[in-house]
Amino acid sequence: MKTPLITVVGSFAVGMTIRADKMPVWGETLPGTDFDMGPGGKGSNQAVGVARMGASTSFIGMIGKDALSEIATKMYTHEKVNTDYLFFTDKLPTGVGIIILNQHGENFIVIDLSANNLLDEKYILKAEERIKESQLVVSVLETPLPTVMKAMEIGKKNGTITLLNPAPAKLIPTENFKNIDYLTPNESELRILLGLKPDDPTPTVELAKRMQSNGLGTVVVTQGAKGALIVTADEVIEVPSAKVEVVDTTGAGDSFNAGFAVSIAEGKDIVTATQYACCCGALCCTKLGVVPGIPYREQVDELFKKTF
User: Fold this and answer.
1) Alpha helices, DSSP H only, in 215-296?
2) Confidence of residue 101 (pLDDT cuts 50, 70, 90)
3) Cα–Cα distance measured from residue 258 to residue 59, given in angstroms and rounded to the nearest whole number
4) In 10 A of CB 225, how many CB atoms?
5) How far is it, in rounded angstroms, from Cα 111 to Cα 16?
6) Distance between CA 220 and CA 260 in Å, rounded?
7) Contacts with 306 (C-beta within 8 Å, 6 or more apart), sequence order
8) What 3-state DSSP class applies to 220?
9) What is the pLDDT of residues 153-193, one digit of tens each?
10) Mean pLDDT across the chain, nearest whole number?
């Protein structure tokens, strides 16, 4: 099987994680433990995940000209992620994210995207040839929406499979749906994409079908411990998650998308790709920290065999 080339358009941020016995309330100071600082950002995490799955990986992103940027460049060298289209700016610092975990592995995150906000469409056009030669291009919504949509447009126009992980979710004009082959929201993100409240009671399948009526391809809704829901033009399929001992859920969605991207790029059918992605997401939950938790191919293969 030929090694697929996958291009990730997205964000890099340095994550700073600390564990507390409970989540603080306003004005409260809590003692914490297990402080960790390391590379993050949804796009960057997915690029690392794709590389660890064995794909040839390129990352298109923007970081500052500061000390934190070295965390990115050192990691990409170690992980064998191509950085020909990693851009630097002195106008804004490298992005950062603050993560607090409770004793159950649940989290909340505050992020300042900083330099990521300067990744505009002209940088995507500089990388157009790389997107054209890729089997799949994947993006997230931690960079400006026009930038993301330009990447999807270029990919669709040139026969490259397009995958959008719409996180953090925002309203997307429906005319852009036609350029998205695969959409991977969670349940609240799906609703926000359509301008609804995150807890809107409309059935998930109905909302996915509404998006598909505007030209969007397959919708794969992640559902945490329940697994994922596949909505194609012809059928609805539930895929259970793999069972693991949860330590930290922070990077599960990014690992899911990395596994899904590689599986689809390799030509796997939608059910197998989603099963594989569920194994990736589950394995990521077994370790503290995002990048340390992103699994390698052999680990996912083993869990996949045990689970499916």
Assistant:
1) 252-265, 270-284, 290-293
2) confident
3) 13
4) 14
5) 10
6) 10
7) 242
8) strand
9) 999 999 999 999 999 999 999 999 999 999 999 999 999 99
10) 95
